Amino acid sequence: VIELRCSPAEGRPTRVRIADGLLLGPNPIATVAGSDAGRRIHALVDRRVAALHPGLVAGLDGVLLVDGGEELKSFAGLEAVLRHLAGRGAERRDVLAAVGGGSVGDLGGLAAALHLRGIELRMVPTTLLAMVDSSVGGKTAINLPEGKNLVGAFWPASEVLIDPGTVATLPDAEWRSGLGEVLKVALGLDAALFEFCEREAASLLDRAPRTVARAVELALRAKIRLVEVDPFERGARRLLNLGHTLGHALEAWSGFSIPHGVAVARGLHHAVDLGERFGGLASTEATRARNLLRRFGFEATALPPRGALLGFLGRDKKVEGGLVHAVLPTAIGASATRPFRPEDFLPAG
Ligand SMILES: NC(=O)c1ccc[n+]([C@@H]2O[C@H](COP(=O)([O-])OP(=O)(O)OC[C@H]3O[C@@H](n4cnc5c(N)ncnc54)[C@H](O)[C@@H]3O)[C@@H](O)[C@H]2O)c1
């Protein structure tokens, strides 16, 4: 079992465990995390995950099944979880386990922060994206019609339990979405992960559990380094937005028909171009980055015209004082932010 710890100076610590088959025993969420007698575990579980991986929720009695996806992150979804907890008489010392992808984690995390002003949260991420990104760092949220993730709280999980074998059943689009985030961390933050992805590409693309486990470990170690110095996302953590400025604009422009990770991967190609021009990224390294993206199936596809994307850039949280604070790779595994006028950030066309 790989064990990691995220211990920010301010805020509560998170323990992460990663192992193939971690959650196959009887009542794994209670047993693995060593639940004390007398504390009950209530669970919010993705319906599809419960059907595909029944062992994950074996032994849990208070399970609320939900349909994972962006629609779940609503006030109606939040109310359903809070009423589930209240209806079961969940106490302060009890635990809420969120089992599923990032949508279940974001909603469950917010409900855990709010029920009786806060109960313990355990995360069992079952998508690659949730394993490498949303399960650690404490950000929870629901959406408003005005925008995504506008209502939320910082409420870190106490335990994150990752069984890399669960990604075997992910639909291809969801798997690719997670790979985009892995490559983001590799390119911007962790040269060892980048080299691992180069070396183990075939096995990672096959979703071999040991390879997935190692990639998740390296990606989380990199994220944890940033979260520990910046638990409330005031500075350093913004480097996790590599590829996201263009990615978010593309996603929004497409009416969210382009999957998040695919849009991010397109944003990574763009960031590599900008890094080469403005960030001191050596052209040999830029070529390596482009090759790795292609190896994972992400091409530098044609972008919509600049005029069509500009409006979507302006809505991004990363725009301040009219400038886009974009993250650029400066070397393999290193990155920095740089302000751009929006028209300079987007390629002409
Ligand atoms: N809190 C954070 O720091 C953070 C970071 C990144 C993303 N997010 C949020 O995460 C969400 C996206 O997460 P996601 O991509 O995991 O999506 P998701 O939760 O919507 O899951 C995607 C789909 O995969 C299915 N699924 C989940 N696990 C499966 C499995 N093992 N096998 C088969 N199907 C499975 C779900 O039923 C769902 O249909 C977004 O709402 C985003 O805002 C949060």
Describe this structure in words.
It is a single chain. With 349 residues, the chain is an alpha/beta fold. 44% of the residues lie in helices and 20% in strands. It contains 14 helices and 12 strands. The chain has helices at residues 28-33, 47-52, 75-87, 102-114, 128-134, 172-189, 191-199, 201-205, 209-229, 244-253, 260-278, 283-295, 306-313, 342-345; strands at 2-6, 14-18, 41-46, 62-66, 95-100, 120-125, 139-144, 147-154, 159-162, 319-320, 323-331, 334-340. A 7-stranded mixed sheet has the order 1-2-9-6-5-3-4. Strands 10-11-12 form a 3-stranded antiparallel sheet. Helix 5 packs parallel to helix 6, helix 6 crosses helix 7 (191-199) and helix 10 (244-253) crosses helix 13 (306-313). The N and C termini lie far apart (50 Å). The structure holds nicotinamide-adenine-dinucleotide. Residues 46, 48-49, 52, 68-70, 73, 100-104, 106, 126-127, 129-130, 133-134, 137, 139, 149, 166, 169-170, 174, 177 line the site of nicotinamide-adenine-dinucleotide.
